[in-house]
Design a protein that fits this description.
Belongs to the membrane fusion protein (MFP) (TC 8.A.1) family. Keywords: Transport. Pfam families: Beta-barrel_RND_2, BSH_CusB, CzcB_C. By secondary structure, this protein is an alpha+beta fold. The protein folds into five domains: 80 residues, no CATH class; 97 residues, no CATH class; 64 residues, conserved putative lor/sdh protein from methanococcus maripaludis s2 fold (Beta Barrel); 92 residues, Efflux pump adaptor protein, beta barrel domain (Elongation Factor Tu (Ef-tu), domain 3), CATH 2.40.30; 105 residues, OB fold (Dihydrolipoamide Acetyltransferase, E2P) (Beta Barrel). The protein is built from eight helices and 30 strands. The strands form eight sheets. The protein has a six-stranded antiparallel β-barrel with strand order 10-19-22-21-20-23. Strands 7-27-26-25 form a four-stranded antiparallel sheet, with helices on one face. Strands 9-24-29-28 form a four-stranded antiparallel sheet, with no helix packed on it. Strand 21 and strand 22 form a beta hairpin. Helix 5 packs antiparallel against helix 6. The two termini are 15 Å apart.
C-alpha cells in the first residue's frame, strides 16, 4: 500500500472515530434536553465533511477548529450542493451489485476516470458508473432527490399565437395628399380678400377673395356671345372650355349663364375643407400665374412617422395595427395601421421609418406632436411555443432539455422563431405535447456535459489502456 493510500485510510478512520465519539457523548445526555435533540439529528444526518464557520473554502474530513478556537460547521449530505447523491441504502447497494460497473469517475467531477477502483489525492474513493447510468443518446438521468434539490420543472409544448409589442417614438405629420394651394392660371389682381386668416378652418366652396383679370373677362364675354347667338355643339362647348381652362369657379360660370351679365370680379373659392396654413393674398395685389395665394391642409387624417430599430423591422408589415399615444394628451390613444415602410435606412441611428395613417376626426392630433407608438406584432395563427426560460442559447446553438420521464432528460437542438409574451416560437425540433425543462435547466445541462466529457475520457482511456498493455487494464501495475 502506498503512502498516499495509508494517509487516506488514516484520515477516513479518524473521521469515523470522531463521528462515533461525538455521537456516543451525545447519547450519554438525558433524553429530554437540547443535547438529546442534537444527538437524534446527528443520527439522522451524519456530517460528510466540515466547513469553515465563516463560509470560506476551507474543509476537513474530521472535526476541526479555526485559529480563534471556533468549531468547523458540520455539513450533512442533504446540505451538500454537489451533484453527487448521498450514500445509497444497503438495498440499493445490493441491487447495484448485480449490475456491471463500466468505469470509475473522479469524485470531485474532474475529467479523470479509471477502469479499476482507486482513490484521489485526498483519499476519496472514485465513484462507480454502472450500465444504464449513462446512455448513448446524450441524455442524463437524475434521481428524484437531485431533481427536487435543483428545482427542475417541466412544461408541455403547446400551440398558441405569439403576441409581442414593439415600442418606438414618432411624430405627427400632415398627409401630403390632403394639402392644396390656391393659385391663378392667369395674370390678375386681388380686389379684396375675405375675412380669413392663417390657422382658421375653411370649408370647401367658401369664398377666399375676389379676383379681376382681363383674360378672364374676355373669356366670359366670348362665352356669353356664343350663348346669345344661340350657338350649340362644339362652338358653345369650346367657349365654355376656355373658362374652365382658366380655372374659373363652376359657380361663377353658372351665374354667367343665369344672369347673362359679366361681373367685374369673380369670387375665388376654397377647393377643400381644412386649415389655412399660408395666406399670401392681400387686397389690391397683383398676382401672376402660379403664385401661391393660399395653402390649405385637411387634418382629419394624419400621418405618424415612426422610427423602428433595424432588428425589429422584419416583424413589421403593411397593415400591422399600431396604437399611438401622444405625449401632450395624457390618457388618450389613437388607433391606426402601417401604410408604408420607407425603403431607406438611417445610417446614423440604424432605424427604418414607417408611416402609419391615423384617423383624426376631432383634429386633436396636431402636426409635429411627439407620440409613443406600440406596434402589435406576432403570429396570426397558433404556433408551437415554449417558455423563454426553456431555451439554452449559446449564441451559435439553441437547445432545450426534453423531460422523458423517470428522471431522464435529453438535450435537443431547436430552431427558434418569433418571441413575445414570455414565449418563443419553435420552428423545428419539437412536437406538440413533449415536456421541456423550464427551470434549473442549466444545472441539468451542466450535468449532461460533465457526463458526456467523462464518457469520452473513459472511452479514450480504455482504448489507450488496451493498446498499451494488451489484456492489462489501464493503471494496473506491471
Amino acid at each position: 500500500m502506498t503512502r498516499r493510500r495509508l494517509i487516506g485510510t488514516a484520515a477516513a478512520v479518524l473521521a469515523a472515530a470522531g463521528v462515533a465519539l461525538f455521537a456516543g457523548l451525545l447519547r450519554q445526555q438525558p433524553n429530554d434536553g437540547p443535547i438529546a435533540s442534537a444527538a437524534n439529528a446527528a443520527d439522522t444526518a451524519a456530517p460528510i465533511y466540515y466547513q469553515d464557520p465563516d463560509g470560506k473554502p476551507l474543509y476537513s474530513l474530521i472535526p476541526k477548529k479555526t485559529g480563534d478556537g471556533r468549531d468547523y460547521r458540520a455539513v450533512p449530505a442533504s446540505a451538500d450542493v454537489s451533484f453527487d447523491e448521498p450514500e445509497q441504502p444497503a438495498a440499493t447497494a445490493e441491487t447495484r451489485a448485480d449490475r456491471k460497473i463500466k468505469y470509475y469517475r473522479n469524485p470531485m467531477g474532474l475529467p479523470d476516470t479509471s477502469p479499476v477502483p482507486k482513490k484521489d489525492s485526498m483519499g476519496m474513493d472514485y465513484i462507480p458508473v454502472y450500465d444504464g447510468d449513462d446512455s448513448d443518446d446524450g441524455s442524463v438521468k437524475l434521481s428524484p432527490g437531485k431533481i427536487q434539490r435543483t428545482g427542475a420543472k417541466s412544461e408541455p409544448v403547446v400551440r398558441q399565437p405569439i403576441r409581442s409589442v414593439i415600442r418606438a417614438p414618432g411624430t405627427v405629420q400632415e398627409d401630403e395628399r390632403r394639402i392644396s394651394v390656391v393659385a391663378l392660371r392667369f395674370e390678375g389682381f386681388v380686389e379684396s380678400v375675405a375675412n380669413v386668416t392663417t390657422g382658421e378652418h375653411v370649408h370647401k366652396g367658401q369664398p377666399l377673395m375676389n379676383v379681376y383679370s382681363p383674360a378672364l373677362s374676355s373669356a366670359a364675354a366670348e362665352y356669353l356671345s356664343a350663348i346669345n347667338a344661340g350657338a350649340t355643339g362644339k362652338e358653345l362647348k369650346g367657349a365654355r372650355r376656355r373658362l374652365e381652362n382658366l380655372a374659373a369657379p363652376e359657380q361663377a360660370i353658372k351665374d354667367l349663364e343665369r344672369t347673362r351679365d359679366i361681373s367685374l370680379s369673380i369670387p375665388w373659392l376654397a377647393p377643400q375643407d381644412g386649415e389655412i396654413l399660408e395666406r399670401n393674398a392681400v387686397n389690391g395685389m397683383r398676382a401672376g400665374p402660379g403664385d401661391v395665394l393660399f395653402r390649405i391642409a385637411d387634418h382629419r387624417l394624419v400621418w405618424v412617422l415612426i422610427d423602428v430599430a433595424e432588428r425589429d423591422l422584419a416583424q413589421v408589415a403593411i397593415g400591422t395595427k399600431v396604437m399611438v399615444r401622444p405625449r401632450a394628451l395624457a390618457g388618450q390613444s389613437f388607433a391606426g395601421a402601417v401604410a408604408l415602410i420607407y425603403p431607406h435606412l438611417n445610417a446614423q441611428t440604424r432605424t427604418a421609418r414607417i408611416r402609419v395613417e391615423v384617423p383624426n376626426p376631432d383634429e386633436a392630433l396636431r402636426p409635429e406632436m411627439y407620440v409613443d407608438a406600440e406596434i402589435e406584432t406576432g403570429t396570426p395563427s397558433p404556433v408551437l411555443v415554449v417558455p423563454e426560460s426553456a431555451v439554452l442559447d449559446s449564441g451559435t446553438r439553441q437547445a432545450v432539455l426534453i423531460d422523458k420521464g423517470q428522471g431522464r432528460f435529453e438535450p435537443r437542438d431547436v430552431k427558434l422563431g418569433r418571441r413575445g409574451g414570455g414565449y418563443v416560437e419553435i420552428a423545428e425540433g419539437l412536437a406538440e405535447g413533449e415536456a421541456v425543462v423550464t427551470s434549473a435547466n442549466f444545472l441539468i445541462d451542466a450535468e449532461s456535459n460533465l457526463k458526456a466529457a467523462l464518457k469520452g475520457f473513459a472511452e479514450a482511456g480504455r482504448s489507450q489502456g488496451a493498446d498499451l498493455s494488451g489484456d492489462k487494464p489501464m493503471g494496473a501495475k506491471p
